Amino acid sequence: MIIATCSRGLEEIASKEAKEITGSEAGKEGNGLIYVKASWKKAFRLNYMAKTMNRIILLLSRGSFTRLEELYKVARNIDYGFIESKQRFAVRFSRHGKHDFTSMDAERIVGQAIIDSYMESYGKRLKVNLEEPDVMIRGFIKENKYWLGIDTTGDSLHKRGYRAYQHPAPLQTTIANALIRMAGWDEKQSLYDPCCGSGTIPIEAYLYGNKVPNKWRWQSFLIWNLSVFEQDRLLEEKLSIDGMERNDELKLYGSDISPKHIEGARKNAARAGAKIKFFVEDVAKTSFDYDIIITNPPYGKRVSSLRAASKINSILEEKILNASCKKAIIFTAEQSNLKNYDRKIPILYGKLWTYAFIYE
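The structure corresponding to this sequence follows.
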């Protein structure tokens, strides 16, 4: 089985995407974690195609525990033959809940179990490299439950690799892609972001609509270091997925009051190969006559004051309610002056709770 990480609140959308990619059952495994009942062979496909997930992990073990010594026993009983003796490994844990140990304690205990298990089975002592490991073992602890697996991704998939221009507060690509799916947008509809910043939402819509894979950093996936996969087979699958990519002209638009950000958005779109119409415009003056509106207005450090954020929200909601759009989403952590939405979905963005306010 495979598990994958995603932003908390996006488990349903990530599960649906995983099922589309693999054809296998998928669902919520925990907060920010989904399961995919697919063979490990589907791992490359998920890494290369998934747009709402962060990491793809081959599940080695999962269960309940009460003490770290139990985790040691679990890890000690796993066969690590997928690690070559010359390779170096690392262990990373994410921990949520109240425990009498830290994430580093769990990493140390499981790391030692891996070394001991390998020595017993293969007569060689594995070496550790915490900075650039060949093989990464990922662990998750949520209250009294644990998951242990092999990271096939490396750097999170939200780091697409197409950003030539860095906005001071960019929207995470995986969340942008999830918002597009949440809106039910399809390639026949027009989509507009009136606060587009560096262009993430329309760029992600282009990638989604044209089935563009994660082609900017596929060579850095950790899956290439795993001997359980034949590299020729992985390359064949990559070429097969590449053949699905389209280059259709889509009705995608983005505007921002900042000429600097619009220039940056154009650079990012060019790097992504995305054809999008960007223009400089004040959100208070622009037209909202598009099928789908999705936007992430400035809030927090991106605006000068709470009053400014509230004013932007008020303008956005009024224009959405008076427009002919089929659906609109305002994604923000600032809830003031947003009152007439139909639904709101909480999404954990880093350590900040944000919300997708949906107008239908």
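Residues 2-151 form a domain with the VC0802-like fold (CATH 3.30.2130.30).
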